[in-house]
Amino acid sequence: MSWTRKLLRVDLDARTCGAEPLNMEWAERYIGQRGLASKYLSEEVDPKVDPLSPANKLIFATGPLTGTAASTGGRYSVVTKGPLTGTIACSNSGGFFGAELKFAGWDMIIFEGRSEEPLYLCIENDRAQLLPAAELWGRSVWETEALIRKRHGDPQLRIASIGRAGETGCLFAGVVNDLHRAAGRTGVGAVMGAKNLKAVAVRGTLGVKVADPKAFMAAVAEGKAKLATNPVTSQGLPTYGTQVLVNVINEAGAFPTRNGRDVQFEGARRISAEAMHEKRPTDGKPNLLRNGACFGCTIACGRISQIDRGHFSVKDKPRYWEPSGGLEYEAAWALGAATGVDDLEALTYVNYLCNEHGMDPITLGATIGAAMELYEIGAIPANETGGLKLTFGSAEALCKAAELCGTGEGFGREIALGSKRLCEKYGHPDLSMTVKGQEFPAYDPRGIQGIGLEYATSNRGACHVRGYTISSEILATPVKTDPLVTEGKAELCKAFQDATAVVDSAGICLFSTFAWGIPDIAPQIEAACGGKWPVERLIETGERIWNLERKFNLAAGFSAKDDTLPKRILKEAAKTGPAKGKVNRLHEMLPEYYKARGWTADGIPSNRTLERLAL
């Protein structure tokens, strides 16, 4: 079967690494990756723990399809209690690191305690050791990867590390692997930094075995054929990446602009996928060089870009002249529309900074956007920014604020708090576009009703990849629903949330679901894992994972009052677009959602639901 049946437990206090058998009873109930790691966290960590204390644990986890021939089977997750939100946190990444961890023979790594000095973990198949990282501390992700490979003389090492942001306690620091893929949201990198853990380096040569190779390869071939004929996964994403959505969502009147003051951005075209393909007048080259793929992926949605060397942001900074990970939709929105900046090269530069220092571009851009609004209304005095003029539309201010946040200097320390704490500090908590402390992604809930319900109920704070109702409400996949109505959205949201939990736990990419449904995934899991994994079992497993996460958050102190949206979204109507004059009608959807979930009117899973799900 495709679990390795082993986990590595790393005690940073004692500096020990030990193998343990994977709890296979839990694996059968939670699949792997997000689900299984969340089960371990909920069993081993007090939900009320301070996320940055040694008592919190940090879990790197793969799924049973990670490292296999399944298309997009390169995913891994980092699970912990998140410092940005205080919720259970699971951040997912692609690239090649997850597959390498599986090739080394490990389903999971559990880090506990805190080292007194910087360390990194090096794994070579069944050999694991903690090594000194003093010379790596203070280094960027890019420098760290190069130095570790040089130290070990192995260019094929796969490395996941934190940059300066994780070291300095930025609450939205991420864990970056393969230079520009990231477990980016919820602050998992800050937890890693608090443990004085700089990096995890892995080299694996053991491969991955599946229960029924013949049936597995047949199921995989069928899945790949569907991806190859679906227009989104075979044409749209490879050609334009997720950036294809910029103009689509802007025209739908759901592109949050200038910290949510507006729902359409007049500069959207200039930061779009189409703009990335166009040749620059300055040097005759396009921003986008090519697309790129993670391990085993037949979609290849990744962007590889190169900044104009004459642009003010990089003019005297040669290290940013080389090709690197380019803008994707969420980053382009957060760094662009949320701040009112339509300078594509500036956005690309700040995206590079996020990769280099290990920052979530969604929270970074949204927080800078909130700071700009606070600055413009006079809530942030000019003498507190160190001369930084935080005005909407200023590419210079965006770049400087990102630089300071990445290195933890000056006003960057305030940006590193995230918009919730920033807005509270300066007396305007309502100006933080967050749920449970995490910033919205790139969809305005006034123009897309169902995504507002998803934000409000997401277990890790506002999030689009915990139940991507955009597929149905905007892209008509698998069925078309009207984004401006609330009827049926509770059931739609629940269905997407449960299905996403399955996808995340299997070790494959959410983008595969533009072409696949659970009936396409089930035969791959069944052939890989062995036993019977019908669609009904997988859907119930997704529901079990969702309720497990909900239980953790309730025990951490969250309640139904946290299932809400900012006042701006509920009270201030959209000014333009198809949703003009409309607000999000969460009050109509939330009671229906609780009912669909089998929860009480107070948002608590009923005893009947817990018994049915063996919780």
Structural notes for this entry:
This protein is an alpha+beta fold and 615 residues long. The protein folds into three domains: 6-203, 4-Layer Sandwich (Aldehyde Ferredoxin Oxidoreductase,  A, domain 1); 266-437, Aldehyde Ferredoxin Oxidoreductase Protein, subunit A, domain 2, CATH 1.10.569; 439-612, Orthogonal Bundle (Aldehyde Ferredoxin Oxidoreductase Protein, subunit A, domain 3). Helix content is 39%, strand content 13%. It has 24 helices and 17 strands. The strands form four sheets. It has a six-stranded mixed β-sheet with strand order 2-1-6-3-4-5, sandwiched between helices. Strand 16 (434-435) and strand 17 form a beta hairpin. The longest helix is centred in the last third of the chain and has 22 residues, at 535-556. It is globular and about 60 Å long. It starts with 5 loop residues before the first strand and ends with a helix. The model has no long low-confidence stretch (mean pLDDT 97).
